[in-house]
Design brief:
Radius of gyration: 27 Å
Structural class: alpha/beta
Helix content: 40-55%
Strand order of the largest sheet: 5-8-9-2-1-10-11-15-16
Distance between the termini: 9 Å
Number of strands: 22
Strand content: 5-15%
Largest sheet: 9 strands, mixed
Length: 815
């Protein structure tokens, strides 16, 4: 394949692909067939660069970024942008009679992730490639993802997301990377006559075969192509005919069922024992396969397993991959003959950990009986790590049993995975300055006291190449016209735009870009929701995973309040506003699903009430994902970042909307603090309890939501409407549990922060009445967003934690 990427070559390759794949012509092909042919054409151009990257990384230290999810979004558009041939593809398709945007829409979002954790991982991979650092993203090739969200009668319905229905042309199956992963059984111990050491042999186990699939992650303009490596599970023996013939039909397909189950869905419901078991199987499955492959690569290149830290770093993206630690120990000792001390030295030098949450329920723990039954040898290793660490605690803090209670890995019948990750890693980082401070001062304060050198902060960032260059071409064109193209690979350059913040021509163009993006989103809403929205209204956006601490509840309560005022107060004047939500609730998270029902119930009433004159619209975007997020972020005027202070680790949607020129309304939580510092307090809208106030309430009590309810008529009316059927088609029971949770405990301080939130929203309304003033505020948010890009974050990880060297691929031209 030639390295030349020009319009005529692209046209020829697409024509050839259409003929080869579908036995038809371009003129007769439909858009799905053209998408497939175009994706394979892009893949042709990628392959030489991918191979060159692989060769350039030989004998280099490589990052293995371990994550349960990668929310990568559609790859075709992003990859051809980073190949610097987007215009050539667009023109080629135009001459073949097709629109590139329509062809991109035929790509299904790969269902490999769900929320901010997965999207961050995807941003990091793109930045690693663009900066030239060799890396693999390592996860699972889920067949159906988390789920595809449908909204039926206002309620979330989960259906399989069959993203592989038509195949995925950009992936490559790696039949040369196949490894067995074992579950269950028991461990037999025998003495090795040569070394005198005990040998641990797992027997009577079940096993599956892990097969690697690689997806290309293309760096911008530098010929680097790293891989997202996701593992599929296959049975070692697909069908046992002898069992079938003897009537044992279940036994005949047992291995196939085990393999299929492991990779079917992301985050299976773990409200029951079998769900917990499946989650642990998933985590061990991809971790074991990844480690086996990394060790095989190292042995081939070096030969001495003790030198593994020189060629590999395993970064655990949150607690899900923490089983990396004992599995690496098992492989080093049981498969490669290292002593415990040698294996521990290697493991500790290879493993690093990012914590993404302070929520107690998200700090993963496993019942000992489950863990030991499913991973018997791995559990033995965890026991020994715990025994040695507890001894360290006792030596350091004699007779301090509270330290042991807080810090032990095994305690009260549970394996505490964050504790294991901290003890075993050489680096532990938070993802925003406030989050890291809370980890050090509260959540992991005992560890910070004992091992402060491990702890550091790496504030998150997002890739502007996807969320501005690709998602907002109008804004990208304006930026390039004003400051050139260096911002594409160095987003700190965006600060040069601030020089134009008083230039009326630039601000007028900026407003025109925002208006066009709002028209695009309005068209999407009309097509998918059947709702007419006014592009001249304020687009107020809250799109993120549905969780109580993120306080979609506070947002919808305020909307109910506005609706009540519009109906009851003839003097109440508000600018037209469209409140836009997008969120998935975990399948087993009933309260979150109840909140979705409330949002849609309010929308159903408000959007059909002609008495309010179109002043208020509520839209819930079904099946929120990367491809529609790109449209939403570009159109946002107001970015809702209203989590309970001290509960959001960082947030990244706040960064994406800031880059696209939205103003933040939020609490001083997560990365909001740093966003406000960058944008300036005059260009953000902050309200609510501080993190210290929240923590004080949580530790000492003193908050009584029922008193707030009794003493605030506006809140009382909103909460009473949850019980009178106003937004539930007369059903007075639909929102009773939500109502009771707010009055009874209100764990996330919705009622406490309501009045402050209402007042800051009134300030937003006043400021938007001066279009020039707001245009400058929004423009300055964009111009001051340079710090919040993932290239900056990755440079900090490389310098402080990973210590990688950049590579320069050399593409070998074929004769």
């Amino acid at each position: 394949m030639s390295n030349q990427i020009d319009k005529e070559t692209i046209k020829r390759v697409i024509r050839d692909n259409v003929k080869m794949l579908f036995k038809t012509t371009v003129e007769a092909a439909d858009e799905q067939q053209i998408y497939q042919a175009t994706a394979y054409a892009a893949k042709d151009f990628i392959i030489d660069r991918w191979m060159a990257t692989h060769n350039a990384a030989t004998n280099k230290k490589v990052l293995y970024y371990m994550s349960m999810e990668f929310l990568i979004g559609r790859l075709l558009g992003n990859n051809i942008i980073n190949l610097c041939c987007f215009d050539a593809f667009r023109e080629a398709l135009e001459e073949l009679g097709f629109d590139l945007n329509a062809i991109e829409d035929k790509e299904r979002d790969p269902a490999l992730g769900n929320g901010g954790l997965g999207r961050l991982a995807a941003c990091f991979l793109e930045s690693l490639s663009t900066l030239g650092y060799p890396a693999y993203g390592c996860g699972i090739r889920y067949r159906y993802g988390m789920f595809k969200q449908k909204i039926e009668n206002g309620a979330q319905v989960e259906v399989p997301d069959n993203w592989l229905k038509n195949g995925y042309p950009l992936e490559i199956r790696r039949n040369d990377y196949v490894y067995d992963v074992k579950f269950g059984g028991y461990v037999r111990i025998e003495r090795d006559p040569e070394t005198g050491r005990d040998r641990f042999i797992q027997e009577n186990y079940q096993s599956v075969r892990a097969v690697a699939y690689d997806l290309p992650i293309v760096g911008y303009g530098n010929n680097v192509v790293n891989a997202l490596r996701v593992w599929d599970a296959e049975p070692l023996q697909e069908f046992e005919l002898s069992s079938f013939e003897s009537g044992n039909y279940h036994k005949a397909i047992e291995q196939e069922t085990l393999a299929k189950t492991i990779v079917e869905v992301l985050y299976p419901n773990d409200n029951h024992y079998h769900g917990k078991e499946l989650r642990l199987k998933q985590q061990y499955f991809f971790v074991s396969a990844t480690l086996q492959r990394a060790i095989a690569r190292h042995i081939k290149q070096d030969g001495d397993i003790r030198n593994l830290p020189q060629s590999a770093v395993f970064h655990m993206n949150d607690t899900h991959p923490t089983v990396t630690v004992p599995e690496l120990m098992r492989l080093l000792m049981d498969e490669h003959g290292l002593s415990w001390d040698e294996a521990w030295s290697v493991t500790n030098a290879c493993c690093a950990y990012t914590n993404h949450t302070i929520m107690a329920e998200a700090l993963e723990k496993w019942p000992v009986d489950l863990f030991a039954r499913l991973l018997p040898r791995v559990y033995q290793i965890v026991e020994e790590i715990n025994r040695r660490f507890v001894r360290e605690i006792e030596d350091r803090y004699p007779n301090d049993y509270e330290k042991i209670k807080q810090m032990a890995i095994l305690y009260e019948g549970q394996v505490r995975m964050p504790n294991l990750a901290i003890v075993s890693s050489y680096s532990v980082n938070g993802v925003a300055r406030l989050h890291t401070d809370i980890l050090k001062e509260h959540i992991f304060s005992d560890y910070y006291q004992m091992m402060p050198e491990k702890f550091n902060n790496k504030t998150n960032g997002v890739t502007h190449r996807r969320f501005v260059l690709h998602a907002n071409p109008g804004l990208a064109e304006l930026i390039t016209d004003k400051i050139g193209t260096d911002w594409i690979t160095d987003f700190s350059e965006i600060s040069k735009m601030e020089a134009f913040s008083d230039d009326q021509e630039t601000l007028d163009r900026f407003r025109a870009v925002k208006r066009a993006n709002k028209e695009r989103l309005a068209a999407y809403i009309k097509e998918h929701n059947g709702i007419d929205v006014n592009p001249d209204a304020i687009f107020d956006v809250q799109v993120k995973r549905l969780h109580e601490y993120k306080r979609q509840t506070l947002n919808i309560m305020h909307i109910m309040y506005l609706y009540n005022r519009l109906k009851s107060d003839a003097t109440f004047d508000m600018l037209p506003r469209v409140f836009i939500f997008g969120a998935k609730a975990a399948a087993g998270y009933e309260r979150a699903k109840e909140i979705i029902q409330l949002i849609n119930g309010v929308a159903n009433v408000v959007n059909h009430d002609e008495r309010i004159g179109g002043k208020l619209k509520v839209v819930f975007i079904e099946d929120y994902r990367v491809s529609n997020a790109e449209i939403i972020f570009a159109a946002a005027d107001v970015s809702e970042q209203i989590s309970t202070a001290s509960h959001e680790a960082s947030g990244t949607g706040n960064m994406k909307m800031m880059m696209n020129g939205a103003v933040t309304v939020g609490t001083m939580d997560g990365a909001n603090i740093e966003i406000v510092e960058a944008a300036g307090t005059d260009n953000a809208y902050i309200f609510g309890l501080s993190s210290k106030e929240v923590i004080r309430y949580e530790q000492n009590g003193g908050y009584f939501p029922e008193d707030v309810y009794k003493n605030n008529e506006d809140i009382a009316k909103v909460l009473d409407q949850m019980l009178d059927g106003s937004f539930a088609e007369g059903d007075k029971e639909r929102f009773r549990k939500l109502h009771e949770s707010l009055i009874g405990k209100d764990r996330y301080f919705n009622l406490q922060d309501f009045d402050a939130y209402r007042k800051v929203q009134e300030r937003i309304d006043r400021d938007f009445r001066d279009p020039d003033k707001m245009a400058k505020k929004m423009f300055l948010n964009m111009a001051r967003s340079g710090r919040f890009n993932s290239d900056r974050t990755i440079r900090e990880y490389v310098e402080d934690i990973w210590h990688l060297e950049p590579i320069t691929p050399v593409i070998v031209q074929e004769d």
